[in-house]
Amino acid sequence: xxxxxxxxxxxDGPRFNVIQKQYEREDxxxxxxxxxxxxxxxxxxxxxxxxxxxxxxxxxxxxxxxxLELPAGMIEKNEDPKEAAKRELEEETGIKAEKVEYLTSCFxxxxxxxxKIYVYLARELSxxxxxxxxxxxxxxxxxxxxxxxxxxxxxxxxxHASVYIAIQTYYYKYYNGGTxxxxx
Length: 184
Description:
The chain is 20% helix and 45% strand. The chain contains three helices and ten strands; from the N terminus they run E-E-E-E-E-E-E-H-E-E-E-H-H. Strand 1 and strand 2 (17-24) form a beta hairpin.
């Protein structure tokens, strides 16, 4: 295991920090890693009684295009991830869920960030009004049947890894009857 010998904050921003860490390997080689530390996040796969998944569309400056996404957001300091999922779902879509259940979690990209994303399933939905943050601009809310979501993944029409994970985890755990008979 590599030994941490030094770390220095290179950027301290409103959304994330960049910390440069120096490690020494067991063979004596010193290596430097730039680590992006944004904090953890949640993504919510909200599924209605017709097996339709709730998506949002918003413009993302980082990719300079409109992205088809599931509701998601950052977990606030000392906030329970499940509560963050409920809050983000309501803020971005106006939807409240009677049932919110943890599905899985994963690291976004362990090669450069420690961000972990928690995936939640939201069911028994009721519809209300959005409560967007001032920096958010949701262009539309779409409902797409889970079978069509799986087709979109296979046709490369969904390009967010966390959306892949959420849809496929739900599909194989719940929609597919909890069996793995469709797995290849």
